[in-house]
Design goal:
Layout: E1 5-6, H1 15-18, E2 28-34, E3 37-44, E4 47-55, H2 58-71, E5 81-82, H3 87-97, E6 101-102, E7 108-109, H4 116-125, E8 134-135, H5 136-142, H6 149-157, E9 170-171, H7 185-201
Parallel strand pairs: 1-6, 2-5, 4-7, 8-9
Antiparallel strand pairs: 2-3, 3-4
Helix pairs in contact: 5-6
Enzyme class: transferase
Domain Methylated-DNA-[protein]-cysteine S-methyltransferase DNA binding: 116-197
Pfam families: DNA_binding_1
């Protein structure tokens, strides 16, 4: 596959600019297939609340949504509409999972309440580009807490929006992959890193 770039023409926004919370429209869910399995998007307007990926079937993806809603009481009263929500982002994700070089930094994110440390970690991670790697310790240092590598791992494990918040680019010292909480575990993490590596060379 030849290298393709899919990016917003307006360029990259700061973490503060692209993170918003809106309650004015219904919450919608989109389930779709990719080269790495079934994925799902949850959000409203053009703001993403949750992304899940790597499921073996549509049923598995639906069960992941149900579990997420059960774990977040504020969603239990929501009427979630299943639709082809945010088709532009769906197409960009499908391109990404085929090996295209895609920039997601223009996408607005609805994040849960974050501590100051968590916010710094997320903002530092957003600066790690396509095909790049950073260790937990290096990310902790960039977030201003050089001894907090383990705490960085906890932030990564709680990431609700993988790929858009690229926790797969965070690895352990010595070249080890470290953890990955998505379905398929570290094999999926390794696959994503391989995809990004090929994106520069093919």
């Amino acid at each position: 596959m030849g290298q393709r770039t899919v990016a917003d023409p307006q360029g990259v926004r700061s973490s503060e600019q692209k993170t918003s919370v809106g309650q004015s429209s219904p919450l919608k869910c989109s389930l779709f297939t990719t080269e790495t399995g079934w994925c799902g998007l949850l959000g409203r307007d053009n703001t993403v609340t949750r992304l899940w990926m790597g499921h073996h079937s549509r049923t598995d993806a639906q069960e992941s949504l149900q579990k997420f809603c059960e774990q977040n009481p504020e969603l239990k009263e929501e009427q979630i509409e299943e639709a082809d929500w945010f088709p532009e982002l769906r197409e960009r994700l499908q391109d990404y999972f085929q090996g295209a070089w895609v920039d997601f930094q223009d996408i607005a994110l609805n994040l849960p309440p974050l501590t100051a440390f968590q916010s710094r970690v997320i903002q530092a991670l957003q600066q790690v580009g396509y095909g790049e790697l950073i260790t937990y310790g290096e990310l902790a240092s960039k977030a201003g807490s050089p001894r907090a590598a383990r705490a960085v791992g906890t932030v990564m494990a709680g990431n609700r929006i993988p790929v858009l918040i690229p926790c797969h680019r965070v690895v352990a010292a010595g070249g080890k992959l470290g953890g990955f909480s998505a379905p398929q575990g570290t094999s999926l993490k390794a696959h994503l890193l391989q995809l990004e590596s090929r994106g520069f060379t093919e």
